[in-house]
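Possible regression after last week's pipeline update?

I re-ran a chain I had predicted before the update to compare outputs. Posting the input and the new output here so someone can diff against the archived version. Not blocking, just want to make sure nothing changed silently.
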Amino acid sequence: MQNQLPITLLHWIVALLPILVLLFLLVFRRWKGPQAGPVSMFTAWAIALLFFRTPFETLAVASAKGVWDAIFILYVIWPALLLYKVADRAGAFEALRLGIRHFSRNRLFLVLAFGWVFVSFLQGIAGFGVPIAVAAPLLVAIGVRPLYAVAIALIGHAWANMFGTLAVGWLATIKVVELENVTGTAFQAALLLWIPDLLAGFTIAWLFGRMSGVRHAWPLVLIISLIHGGGQLALVLWNPVVSTFIPATVALGALYPLSRWERYSEPQDIESDVMQERKGKNETEEREPVMGLWMSVLPYIVLAVSIVIGSGIPQVESILGRFEIGLPFPETTTGYGLTTEATRPYSPFSLFTHPGTYLLLASLIGWAVYRAKGYYRKAGGEKEGIWSGLTGNAIPASIAVTSFLVLSKTMDDSGQTNVLAFGISAVSPPLVYAFFANWIGIVGAFITSSNTASNILFSPLHDTVAQTEQALSQTTLIAAQSTGGAIGNAIAPANIILGTSTTQQTGKLGEILKMTLPWAAVAAVLTGIVTVLINNVTFVR
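New output (post-update):
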């Protein structure tokens, strides 16, 4: 394959062109994913036909595989957004906000509670910009200055992107790359993701009150990070799908006993530029929530219980997993002799143990209970239907994800990914490449505002580099890529614009980047160092 593929500067540049087109359209032309994705996909098609001797049949099969992989991912996205809308329209998040707020009068505790713990919980269940859109206004509501509110939400949610939304990023990764060590890759990714999580807690405390804030918050940060990072690290060995959702939920629950600690229950005299004087209604004048705190998290309790029963009991999982769906695809080849073997079936999945089924079940039960108790009427959620609110977010996400997956499969099956990988490995020493592997993930997330999309685009690249470079581990490179994809969400322009629009700070993208870029740079350097260490210590060829 290496001998037949044209490893020339011209072919390397044209193979990179679909990514460059995507970067140009998203960053410089300010297009959105649903617009830029299809254009980049068409670019990859044209390059495959004109420069990589790809027959139409090969192109059609690769595109069909991308669409099939997208269906698997979309069955997570739609139910996840549905679950969020079911709870939001019923007033569950407002009840949860007030419930957390009444725990403590300590401002730094509340900022960490909303800007790190609660936003991670939201990323664990919804993702796709929902955590930023919800948490940033909530931070403003408790007195945080709008620009800080956006920056804090961006930093706080980033670590949870890879295995959040019931591990949609992970599920996409295993669709585009055949991992040599599935469990090892998930474990190393969780280990590396602990870096941006811990760094997020300390950074938010630093933004709040510099060293005074760090000194006051360090016990809380270590405890929550132990729940987040330690819990995720343990759970990926059992089921990566719930490895962020469950720890993020436990951390949310841990806020109550932590708020009883005198250190975090009473106000502290810490000077802070983050907070502003609140205008309008005070706490006593706010409208009472339509439901209690525990009722607000009912759908997520149902979600957790159903996952534990369906995936944690071997007998139940065996019964539910018998029904699988998959499609056969024929062998394809290109004019340069790159052959993709036939698969029968290709990428099958079990419908009844799919994360989307658990999300759908939790959504239906939550909707039935909330409707029976009249919460939609009381909260005014009947004015805008759940379905209309859902399609407005889910359809654009579906177009973007589908086009990215087709783009990835086209580049992979036509040989474009291979040429990129061979070119990079030829000029980059192994340790240097290992250090910068997570930076590639950051660039992908910066371009697409998605850990999932970043992994779809660049995991095949790392896979090919690992196959051609004897000193690099595929397991470690994919883990680093996944961590970089998470970090990059804190500096992605689309995410920043989403936050600034929900806090009425439109046009302040540069000011937000000044706060999130240093955090992302430190996280990238630390992740790169640890990646090199892991690659050297655990690499076995």
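Follow-up from reviewer: compared with the archived run. Residues 50 and 338 are 16 Å apart (CA to CA). Marking as no regression found.
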